[in-house]
Design goal:
The complex is a heterodimer of chains A (157) and B (184). By secondary structure, chain A is mainly alpha-helical. Chain A contains six helices and no strands. Chain B contains five helices and seven strands; from the N terminus they run αβββαβαβαββα. Classes of the chains: A mainly alpha (157), B alpha/beta (184).
Chain lengths: 157, 184
């Protein structure tokens, strides 16, 4: 049992892997924690699906160092992110600001959910209405009567 | 209502189809990150010359008040495509009289000097960006990258990757002509 747990932990270990190198880490744990938090919001411009914390690219390392340098100089978290944003644009942020250019990106999920709810609501509403004990329309009544008649004749033979 | 629902798959197919068409377009490069610098003034930076070279360093002031557009190329001796691009840039300088300035990105000065001695030096100024800080100011994602800066110091164009091959050269030439035309 213990072996299984250890094996499972070892399998999960790579999730924690980061590219932050020992020489980059700040002596002050509070500042370092803030650096990590900021790094998670910044996208590496070379390997675009990684944050700069988990990327081995040279530019990512430079940005990690830059983030720490700004923090040490007394910048707030927001100021550091703004500094990088000003140089690399919306692209470097995992959460880009809401502007005219990013409106589609932000609104598309809402629009899709609204469309899905609307379609779902309509179809459920229709199903309910059909189930209610509404009288059949005359055309259907006539068809049923005809079918019953035919059955009655067949049955009597 | 029924007809509306019957037409829905067609509409969905059209929307998705258009999306896939856009995604599969060979002209579209997902790595192409738009630069925030375009139409903005050149960033603040000041780089020392590369020791051992007879050209001056490069700073923001060198890119202000030029008579025409300047090409700023970020290069390094360790960057293999830069070698291929070097020939193209040299031709621009020799044949078209383009003003070319360089940022030597994270390169050992000794290597840069040897590289330029071997291939020739088309740059009229080269700043040595040892720690890549100027690279961050310019928002580059790697080398080579090439910018066209207007005479007044406005960044007009950015090319990511080596300007090698007919398409790339044609694209860059067009941008350069537009930059020159915009000033006259």
């Amino acid at each position: 049992m213990r072996a299984v747990v250890i094996a499972a932990l070892l399998v999960l270990l790579p999730i924690l892997a980061q590219a932050v190198e020992p020489d980059e880490i700040l002596a002050d744990p509070a500042l370092e924690a803030r650096a990590r938090e900021i790094s998670k919001q910044l996208r590496c411009v070379v390997c675009q699906n990684q944050d700069i914390d988990s990327s081995n690219a040279g530019v990512a390392r430079d940005l990690r160092l830059l983030v720490r340098e700004r923090l040490t100089a007394g910048d707030s978290n927001v100021e550091v992110v703004d500094y990088v944003h000003a140089r690399f644009g919306d692209f470097v942020l995992f959460k880009p600001p809401f502007t005219r250019r990013t409106a589609v990106l932000w609104l598309a999920p809402l629009v899709l959910v609204a469309a899905a709810l609307l379609a779902g609501g309509l179809s459920i509403g229709r199903a309910r209405r059909v189930r209610a004990d509404a009288p059949l329309d005359p055309e259907d009544e006539a068809r049923i009567a005809a079918a019953m008649d035919r059955y009655g004749q067949e049955g009597s033979e | 209502m029924k007809r509306l629902i019957a037409g829905l798959p067609l509409v969905l197919a059209a929307i998705l189809g258009a999306f896939f068409l856009w995604g599969l377009d060979p002209e579209r490069d997902p790595n192409n990150i738009p630069s925030v610098l375009i139409t903005h003034p050149v960033p603040d930076f000041a780089l020392d010359p590369v020791p051992g070279l007879d050209v001056p360093g490069l700073a923001t002031a060198d890119l202000l008040g030029n008579p025409g557009p300047v090409v700023v190329n970020v290069f390094a001796s360790w960057c293999v495509p830069c070698k291929a691009e070097h020939a193209v840039l040299s031709r621009f300088v020799e044949r078209d009289g383009v003003r070319l300035m360089g940022i030597n990105y994270k390169d050992k000065p000794k290597d840069a000097v040897r590289w330029l001695a071997e291939l020739g030096n088309p740059y009229s100024a080269i700043g040595s960006d040892l720690d890549g800080r100027a690279g961050i100011e310019w928002g580059i994602s790697g080398v080579p990258e090439t910018f066209i800066v207007g005479g007044d110091g406005t960044v007009l164009y950015r090319y990511v990757g080596p300007i090698v091959g007919e398409d790339a050269v044609a694209k860059f030439t067009l941008a350069l002509q537009q930059a020159q035309g915009g000033l006259s």
